Amino acid sequence: MHSSLLLALCSATLSYAIPTIEAVGGKFFTSDGDQFFIKGVAYQLTEKDPLVDTEQCKRDASLMKKLGANTIRVYHVDPKADHDGCMSAFADAGIYAMVDMDTFDTYILPNDPWWNQTQFDAYSKVMDTFHDYDNLLGLFVGNEIIAINNQSLAAPFIKASARDLKAYRDSKGYRKIPVGYSATDIAELRPWLQDYLTCGGNASENIDFYGLNSYQWCDPTDYKTSGYINLQEQAKNFPVPIFFSETGCNKPGPRLFNDQDSIFGPEMVNDWSGAIVYEWIQEANEYGLISYGPKVDPTVTGKDIVGGFTRAGTPTPVKPDFDNLSKHWATITPTGVARSEYNTKSISTRACPTSTPSGWLVNGNVAVPTLGETLTASSYSSVPSATGTAASAEPSETQNAVSGSKEIAGMGAGLVEASQSQPQQPSSSSSAAAPVAGGEIVEQHCDDHKRRAWSIKNKNCLRAKLNWHR
Ligand SMILES: *[C@@H]1O[C@H](CO)[C@@H](O)[C@H](O)[C@H]1NC(C)=O
Ligand SMILES: *[C@@H]1O[C@H](CO)[C@@H](O)[C@H](O)[C@H]1NC(C)=O
Ligand SMILES: *[C@@H]1O[C@H](CO)[C@@H](O)[C@H](O)[C@H]1NC(C)=O
Ligand SMILES: CC(=O)N[C@H]1CO[C@H](CO)[C@@H](O)[C@@H]1O
Question: Is 272 helix (H, G, I), strand (E, B) or coil?
Answer without folding.
Answer: strand
